[in-house]
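Q: Predict the assembly, please.
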Amino acid sequence: MRHTEDILLRTSRIGKKFGGLSALSDVTLHIQRGEIYGLIGPNGAGKTTLFNVLTGLYQPSAGEFQFNGAPYRAGKPHVLARAGIARTFQNIRLFANLTALENVMIGRHVRTRAGVFGALLRNRATRDEERAITERSRELLSYVGIEKPGQTLAKHLSYGEQRRLEIARALATDPLLLALDEPAAGMNATETASLKTLLQTIRDSGITVLLIEHDVKLIMGLCDRVAVLDYGKKIAEGVPEQVRKDPAVIAAYLGGGDE
Amino acid sequence: MEILLQQIINGLVQGSIYALVALGYTMVYGILGLINFAHGEVVMVGAMLVLSSLTAMLGWGIPPVLALPVSVMLAITGCMALGYGIERIAYRPLRHAPRLAPLITAIGVSIVLQNLAMMIWGRDYHSFPQLFANTTHSFGGAVINDIQIIIFIMAVAIMAGLMVVVHHTRLGRAMRAIAENQHAAQLMGVDVNRVISITFMLGSAMAAVAGLMVSANYGLAHYYMGFLLGLKAFTAAVLGGIGNLRGAMLGGLLLGLIESLGAGYIGDLSGGFFGSNYQDVFAFLVLIAVLVFRPSGLLGERLAERA
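A: Predicted assembly structure:
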């Protein structure tokens, strides 16, 4: 059994209702520092809902979660971003009309200080900070493998590059937990393979990764541990080999018809 | 020819004031998709604050060199607080309400401010005290005075400053990110409410300066002055493409020119039937024409410039 300090995120009995519909109920799980944790389940199982709760977009109807030792309940995305949770979206949500570099620079927002007066007066500290932000953002662009110039508008990047840019923007917040909502969606085999390498590099740099994915092969080959959601409930959790053999999982998902 | 030059000068000076006010409309629209119809009243409050504090200080024997900056700072601070308050009270609680709701509260706030101003400052015109000899310079048959020169230079400087803030600072980046996608910006750690508050305060600070300029230019201020000025600045913002900063500046200057040239020539063109008192008609003809023929405004399609 691991120590509590090794646990980065712990949810306790999280529930979320939309009207009368229960999208999540009693979801209790924990994510350890430094692992890649996969979240799988059939369409509509509640994966994205759980993501939205953990990143503060939704307020849970029941339960709470602890992140890095502190409890969170109310939905305040910028507070969670500050606490160290960063995410990407299933449908890419970049700032389309900002440049690639500016997109990443926005991610640095949370870790920098300069206020209104600094912005207006353009004092030394502000200029130094801007320079540091720009430099770090350029590094991140090349870290995720975007070769195009930073001045390219985000909407002019290719699909795969846009996905990578989202990851760079999330990394810019210096997250403890990087949450990726279907990063491989729409990617071809080559792009998926290089995404896998990128995620491993990120994990090895000490950032914990939470991954929602439909690509079971990717999940099984990449994740240290996996949880399976079905109808808003967690039906299995464990290392990939173990989960793959779980009868409940096979019934719900892997063996369940069209998937 | 002298008339043409003179009307261009007048138009540019008046237009630079419209542009400052139009920026306030367009910044808020860019970020919230909301038209802050109370913005014109903020200009009026700015003018009133400058005038009353300036008159009071001059009455106490404080020299103009000191009194003017102090009263301007007072008006800017007052208007920033007002802008912050308007957003907190009238708009933030309605952030997720149907779009008509904040429009109605905007008109409500506008009426409340007009009436408060009437109660505080009365119904009379207040005249702007003469602070220095306002020298008139003439060239090419046209004249321009010191106040007009100062207004134009100040307006251009403020607009340039705003462009630097929006395009080259952390705050401006946050503003543009919110305009693009509020949710994603929040998840990057941008405190959306804070940035929206700051946007309102920046717009209101510019409105205060515009209030000073209008009252200095015409030598008068009145509790009702914000209404027409606000509508015209809104027209300027629509003309340039609402939500677009460069559009607001361009629209302001163009509207000033159209009005001024229209007023200068309408008498000749109509054989003396209409006089220059029909000046205000031009602004609204422009508004109608833009809404009919190019609702997105002159620069409206270039969403990248939104702030």
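Chain A has a mean pLDDT of 85. Chain A touches chain B at residues 55-57, 77-78, 81-82, 86-87, 89, 93-98, 102, 105-107, 109-112, 114-116, 119-120, 122, 126, 129-130, 133, 153, 169-170, 172-173 (CB under 8 Å).
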